[in-house]
Design a protein that fits this description.
By secondary structure, the protein is an alpha/beta fold. It has 18 helices and 27 strands. This is Phage terminase large subunit family protein.
């Protein structure tokens, strides 16, 4: 009888044990137990192993007492994988309406196809949970999935109208600084409004910063408890957040870079970094802030081989003399905001003093390609020619004004004749104009520009239209049906102006000027300055015209830089052809035509 009682007690014990919920895991532990990376997503496929600095970030995302998590991040620290692991944990353990916000539609699709789908498929606990893009119910799409107890929608910030239809308890935002203010307001603010009905909402925002004065992620981090990751020195055990100022190397030998402890002055080799990072810890510098965990991290603590101190030091040395490449390093490696010119004007008189004795009548040997930018005014066409060297140096060769109304055929005939010009090269041959961009943004002259450019597309004479916004590419083809099948290109004026301004204020002669250019041309080139203005309560960086200045020269340079992206010179072949002009200018042999007898029958 006792045996039977014992057996019943054992059955009862096992039954109760089966009903007991599993122990609650920290999100970092859950990710390492359940998330797997397949080939193609990671160079180290298999179960996720979080780096020490990732663990507290994950645990803050999983902590119900923390409503907001902000991460100022560089590249090479695995934030996207961490975000996907957190997303998987919500889907599997805490289902809810989830909204992921990314800058563009292409980013949204790439995140679903390249990250979420393969990682979910490789992780047994998540395999099949969010279903296929097209299921029998017809309710799933590539960017909208349903799962038991919740839903996942991935939305592009450039289409804020998509946010109106959704509510979410969990909001995940990646690359926040890549999102521009739309006509309806800041997309992140719009997305946050979709979470207001949930008392237990979770908002996770991460981004590499852009410009210091207008960075959303830096402003958001400033409102958090501002945690920094500090590592111990192997010699004195003093804790430090590693910054670039702590990395030193012998002159000319950045590959020998070491960490120099600010407390004891000892130089620490790269081989000690793994143990330093393993012993590192996050410290809140504003611990009085409750419910908003902020993390700031740079790539100097990354354990990836391509993020060694030596390699990062070499990247800095290569980037430091060009503001354009330096900004990339500051944003993506140091995770710091880049300090813009702050509205300071570029000195046109100083630029004019840099003029050199060259031009279209005396081309520099380095110039192996030429592009032109044409600005259309009501009574004239203004043209600037830029020569290009293989190393990217720009040579402003000349400026020309063709007087005449754009409505007159004679104006365009004179332009056409000029664009057929060839210019003698010191090697012996001559250069033609490789590509031309003509502004069609003025609604009054658009049809005349189209009428001139569309039939001459084979000569790479293209109509263009400028568009603002720092996230635009330099140039891309328009898909508008209004062009009636002609080639129209959209030019990202702000990023090109930024690119030109960086070259003008940098060193190394990135832009060189002909002494044939008048003083008024330099004044027009320096007619705008980068400033930060507030739009709908948000800081927005943009270029603003300096009062009283004309901008035709700047516009022409922008167009010539844009159309440079549409040519791909073979520099070696071009130099050789210029040295052998009789071969370059000889007509191509006519192809032999074989005619069948039946054609004449």
């Amino acid at each position: 009888m006792l045996d039977a009682v014992d057996r019943l007690e054992e059955i009862e014990r096992r039954a109760l044990a089966a009903l007991r919920p599993p122990p609650k895991l920290k999100l970092s532990d859950w990710i390492e137990r359940n998330i797997y990376l397949p080939d193609g997503v990671s160079s180290l496929p298999g179960a996720v192993r979080l780096w020490p600095f990732q663990r507290e970030i994950a645990d803050a995302i999983g902590d119900p007492a923390i409503e907001r998590v902000t991460l100022v991040k560089p590249v090479r620290v695995g934030f996207t994988t961490l975000l996907t692991g957190a997303l998987g944990a919500f889907v599997a353990n805490d289902p809810a309406p989830i909204l992921a916000l990314l800058p563009t539609e292409a980013d949204a699709r790439d995140y679903m196809v390249s990250e979420i789908e393969p990682i979910f498929s490789a992780s047994p606990v998540l395999n099949g949970v969010i279903g296929e893009a097209k299921d029998e119910s017809g309710r799933n799409t590539i960017l909208s999935r349903r799962f038991p107890g919740g839903s996942l929608k991935i939305v592009a910030a450039k289409a804020p109208r998509n946010l109106r239809r959704h509510t979410a308890r969990v909001l995940l935002v990646d690359e926040a600084d890549g999102m521009e203010v739309t006509a309806e307001g800041p997309p992140i603010a719009l997305a946050e409004k979709r979470t207001l009905s949930y008392a237990d909402r979770k908002i996770v925002i991460g981004s590499t910063p852009t410009f210091e004065g207008s960075s959303y992620i830096l402003r958001n981090y400033a409102l958090s408890d501002r945690r920094v990751f500090e590592v111990p020195c192997p010699e004195c055990d003093g804790r430090t957040e590693i910054n670039l100022q702590h990395i030193e190397w012998p002159t000319g030998k950045p590959h020998l870079a070491q960490f120099v402890c600010p407390a004891c002055g000892c130089a620490i080799d790269e081989r000690h970094k793994p143990e330093m990072v393993a012993a590192g810890a996050w410290r809140a510098t504003a611990p009085e802030v409750i419910g908003h965990a902020g993390f700031r991290l740079n790539a100097l603590v990354s354990l990836l081989p391509n993020a060694s101190w030596g390699k990062l030091a070499a990247e800095f040395v290569a980037a430091k003399d060009d503001r354009t490449t330096l900004q990339v390093f500051v944003n993506t490696i140091l995770a710091e905001g880049f300090r813009a010119d702050g509205g300071e004007e570029i000195d046109d008189e100083a630029l004019a003093k840099r003029a050199e004795p060259f031009g279209c009548e005396a081309l520099p040997e380095a110039v192996l390609a030429i592009t032109a930018g044409v600005d259309v005014q009501r009574d004239r066409l203004e043209i600037t020619l830029i020569g290009w060297a293989e190393d990217g140096t720009m040579y402003v060769l000349m400026t020309l004004v063709i007087w005449g109304k754009p409505s007159d055929d004679s104006t365009w005939a004179e332009l056409d004749e000029f664009l057929k010009s060839r210019f003698a090269h010191p090697f012996g041959g001559s250069l033609a104009i490789d590509a031309v961009a003509i502004d069609s943004g003025d609604g009054e002259t658009m049809d005349r520009v189209y009428g001139f450019c569309f039939p001459r597309a084979a000569r790479k004479i293209f109509a263009i239209k400028g568009d603002g916004g720092f996230r635009r590419p330099f140039i891309e083809r328009s898909t508008s049906s209004k062009t009636r099948g002609g080639l129209l290109f959209i030019v990202g004026t702000d990023p090109i102006k930024d690119h030109v301004a960086a070259k003008l204020t940098g060193s190394g002669g990135a832009i060189r000027f002909s002494n044939t250019l008048p003083a008024s041309w330099f004044e027009q080139l320096c007619s705008e300055r980068a400033i930060v203005r507030y739009s709908k309560g948000q800081p927005v960086r943009r270029f603003e015209r300096i009062p009283g200045r004309r901008a035709e020269a700047l516009d022409c340079v922008v167009y010539a830089v844009a159309v440079r992206q549409l040519i791909n010179p073979n520099w070696a072949s071009r130099a050789e052809a210029l040295r052998s002009p009789e071969l370059a200018l000889a007509p191509a042999p006519r192809p032999r035509v074989i005619r069948s007898n039946w054609v004449d029958q």
